[in-house]
Each structure stands twice: as structure tokens, then as C-alpha cells.
Amino acid sequence: MLLSGVLSVLLGITGIARDALFGTPPHYEYRFGLTAWGWIHLVIGLALLAASVGILTTRSWGSGAGVALGACSLVTQFMFIPYYPVWSISVMVLDLLAIWALARIAPDLA
Description:
Elements: H1 2-17, H2 34-56, H3 62-79, H4 85-103
Helix pairs in contact: 1-2, 1-4, 2-3, 3-4
Domain DUF7144: 1-104
Transmembrane segments: 36-56, 63-81
Protein name: DUF7144 domain-containing protein
């Protein structure tokens, strides 16, 4: 989850600073400006980093927040596939692995 957060923050910074870097699909339902996508990814990435710190320090809210934020990241990466498919699919795999790992933690260990 920490790696997914860092990658989302990098994507967000790139989307904000250089929004002409990504191609824009012509007919896409969830088409926002790339600056807006940059802010979305930046906010989710920072939230993922905070949840990762919560998980690593074994806070009670860490695993629940990690699953919820991992799911949000998964959805936003899915919606970003037409802009940058290889990156989005790679981060989606990381999100799925993190959600799966957090969902398998026994309640008495969390």
C-alpha cells in the first residue's frame, strides 16, 4: 500500500505540473481535465500514505482505512486506464494485493 501511495502521489504531481503529458481519449464518459485527475490522485496517494503509516504502526484504524482507501484507489485507477493504461493496471494490481492482504489479517492481530 505504501508503494501504491507513492506511485499515486507521483502520478498526481505529474498530472498537475504537466497535464499535456498524457493523451486525452476523445469519447470517454469520465473525462476530466488532467489537472483534476492529478489532484484526485494526489489526494488519494497522500491518504494511502497516511493509512500505510497507520498499518505499520499497528493503529486500530489502519487496516480498515487501508481497505477503504485501497478500494478508492482501485476505482480511480480503473477510471484512469484510457489515459495511461500500463501505469494504471500496475497500480491496480498493487491495490488488489494490499486489499487482499489486509482483509486476511485476523481481527485479534489488527
